[in-house]
Amino acid sequence: MSTDRVPPGQKLTEGFPVLHYGDVPYYRDMSKWDLKLFGLVEQEVSISYKHFMQLPRQQYKNDIHCVTTWSKLDNVWEGVSVAAVLGQVKLLPNVTHVMLHAEEGWSTNLPLADFIAETSFFGLKHNGELLSPEHGYPVRMVVPHLYFWKSAKWLRGVEFMAKDKPGFWEVNGYHMYGDPWKEQRYDWD
After folding, report:
1. pLDDT at 84
2. Rounded Cα gap, residues 84 and 91, in angstroms
3. Lowest-pLDDT range, 88-92, 101-105, 113-117?
4. Tens digits of per-residue pLDDT, 59-91?
5. 142, 123 contact by CB (below 8 A)
6. Distance between CA atoms of 161 and 71, rounded to whole angstroms?
7. In this predicted model, what pLDDT tens digit does every residue of 26-56 receive, in sequence order?
8. Which H or E run contains 113?
């Protein structure tokens, strides 16, 4: 494995560690799941699970890096592009950031440019298997060029904003951006 793909302070893992705060949500009735697109949009949209699963999917390959110092190389994902989801809503011109909202009130912020990057997507499967509840089933955001907490599990909403603000993780000491190559782990880094 190539160490030039591993940021400073990281260790390679073959596994897929499970880290989260609070309870793992288990969905039994998918008719109650939706993804809300709101904030600075012409009209708020709620995408049902059935509609979301009908959006075109593609395969993505990437490396992921967790703030807790593990890195996993050569991941293969199946997911929905950000462009396909953004095709459901019209953004207002002053959008500069997004807030990803997940179950239990968890959230994390991203600059719009990182959210819409071609490498960012809505993940449904990892290495050929549906995401497990512990890894974010039914949908998690995947933003592989940032530390993995920016890849919010159990995604329920995307809020479009005119300025940056901290999410749950950032309010609790994590870096506002989270570049693994600069070791931006915590707010003092």
Report:
1. 98
2. 14
3. 101-105
4. 999 999 999 999 999 999 999 999 999 999 999
5. yes
6. 30
7. 888 999 999 999 999 999 999 999 999 999 9
8. helix 112-115
Contacting residues for 129 by C-beta, under 8 A, at least 6 apart: none
Asked if residues 159 and 99 have their Cβ atoms less than 8 Å apart, the reply is: yes
Give the CA count within 13 Å in the CB-facing half-sphere of 114: 22
Is the preceding omega at residue 25 within 30 degrees of 0, hence cis? no
Dig out the tokens for 126 from the structure.
């990892």
Phi-psi region of 63 (alpha: psi -120 to 50; beta: other; left: phi over 0): beta
User: Which residues make Cβ contacts (< 8 Å) with residue 171, sequence separation at least 6?
Assistant: none
Distance, CA of 87 to CA of 85 (rounded, Å): 5
pTM of this structure: 0.93
pLDDT tens per residue, range 127-185? 999 999 988 999 999 999 999 999 999 999 999 999 999 999 999 999 999 999 999 99
Cα(178)–Cα(112) distance, integer angstroms:
14
3-state secondary structure of 98: strand
* Torsion angles phi and psi, residue 180, rounded to 5: -65, -25
Q: Is 154 exposed, middle or buried (0-12, 13-18, 19+ CB in 10 A)?
A: buried
Report which of 52, 47, 106 is spatially closest to residue 79, judged by C-alpha positions: 52
As given in the structure block, the two tokens for residue 76 are 């293969």
